[in-house]
Specification:
Elements lengths: L7 E3 L5 E4 L10 E4 L2 H9 L6 H19 L4 H11 L6 H15 L5 H38 L3 E6 L16 H8 L3 E7 L6 H13 L2 E5 L4 H6 L5 E4 L3 E3 L4 E4 L2 H10 L4 E4 L5 E2 L5 H4 L8 H4 E5 L5 E5 L12 E4 L6 E4 L2 E3 L3 H7 L7
Helix pairs in contact: 1-2, 1-3, 2-3, 2-4, 2-5, 4-5, 5-6
């Protein structure tokens, strides 16, 4: 283990410490997760978020569960089930929990040590995949610059898929970080990403820390920028990808893909193999879409004139609101999937060929 990943790390006492993403960008604070229930709360309340990190925290949640119960019993199973159900759309969570359970069931002794080792192994592997995705994505950026005969590139992204969301460079932001390392002049259009503003709060915070040029825009600005040739490519992350290449991601991604298609702008999705759900073919009809609290739409959080973090109501108090957390972008709108196994066109037979060893029996 590296000892410390950027958004999460293990303490000397064997607990999990995480950056509290609900406080960013105004405060950088941490929360220590000591029990399986703590991990459920952290995932549900979005103290941590992003498919990759959710999966890794879920894995450590299983470790904390066996640390509490010492053996696989009804109490342990109940704790694990609560972890599995904490977020329904991001498939990385179910994948990581299942991987942990499979490892534990194949052993009868030293379960706590084995669980910790497997959680670390899962997290190390996700960090490794992130670095490979960065290289494949940066190659695409270089190719686009060559075709356009330009020296700088404008990339639009939606939500947050950097190192806060996916260890250790991210997915959508990983190619951008690698491009900067290669000396490429990169500018990022950052969608604010209502209703929780992960773009304005988290992506902008990450890019600023990395010294990457960026501009925050309202969610509905992207199409206008594309019409006026101010976007060279779009890269987003994903929370679940179907076997034929449909992509579930933060609500609003579908609209960006439509605008990109209409303006002949390449639209890429970056993801590790753990984000594929090979049991699902038709993403639009089969991927479960999480509905979250209407308060996320009706209230916004920010710094008031006294420098205090405050939550304010921005709608009529009694007006109802609907808050879908995700939408599904159909494969026909996607140029390519950037994975640790290469860049793949979203066609079922090509995906199956590349990931044959991971397909369900």
């Amino acid at each position: 283990m590296n000892g410390k990943y950027r958004p999460i790390w293990i303490t000397k006492k064997g607990f999990l410490k995480v950056i509290d993403q609900t406080k960013l960008p105004h405060k950088q604070e941490t929360v220590t997760l000591k029990t399986a229930e703590d991990t459920v709360i952290a995932i549900k309340d979005m103290i941590i978020r992003g498919a990759g990190v959710i999966g890794c925290v879920g894995a450590f949640g299983v470790y904390l569960a066996i640390r509490e119960t010492k053996k696989i019993n009804e109490n342990f199973n109940s704790k694990v089930e609560a972890i599995r159900k904490s977020r329904p759309t991001a498939v990385n969570l179910m994948w990581a929990v299942d991987k942990m359970i499979e490892t534990l069931k194949n052993n009868s002794e030293n379960l706590v040590e084995i669980a910790l080792a497997e959680a670390i192994n899962i997290t190390d592997e996700e960090a490794r995949k992130s670095k490979i995705i960065a290289k494949y994505g940066a190659d695409i950026i270089e190719d686009i610059l060559k075709d356009k005969e330009e020296k700088s590139i404008n990339i639009l992204t939606h939500c947050n898929a950097g190192w806060l969301a996916v260890l250790d460079m991210g997915t959508a932001l990983a190619p951008i970080y690698e491009a900067k390392n290669r000396g490429i002049d990169v500018h990022v259009w950052v969608d604010e990403t209502r209703p929780r503003n992960q773009g304005a709060n988290l992506t902008a915070w990450e890019l600023k820390k990395e010294g990457i040029k960026h501009t925050i825009i309202a969610d509905n600005t992207g199409g206008h920028l594309m019409q006026h040739d101010l976007v060279d490519m779009v890269i987003t992350g994903a929370d679940r990808v179907s076997r034929q290449g449909d992509v579930a991601n933060k609500i609003g991604t579908y609209l960006k893909a439509l605008s990109a298609k209409d303006n002949k702008i390449p639209f890429y999705v970056a993801l590790p193999s753990s984000t594929f759900d090979f049991n699902i073919i038709d993403g639009i009809n089969e991927i479960p879409i999480e509905t979250r609290s209407e308060d996320e739409v009706k209230y916004m959080r920010g710094i008031n004139s006294n420098g205090e973090l405050e939550e304010i109501l921005i709608t009529p108090k009694n007006s109802p609101a609907l808050n879908y957390g995700f939408d599904v972008t159909p494969r026909r709108l996607i140029t390519g999937l950037i994975t640790e196994r290469g860049v793949i066109r979203p066609i079922q037979r090509l995906i199956e060929s590349k990931f044959r060893d991971l397909l369900p029996v």
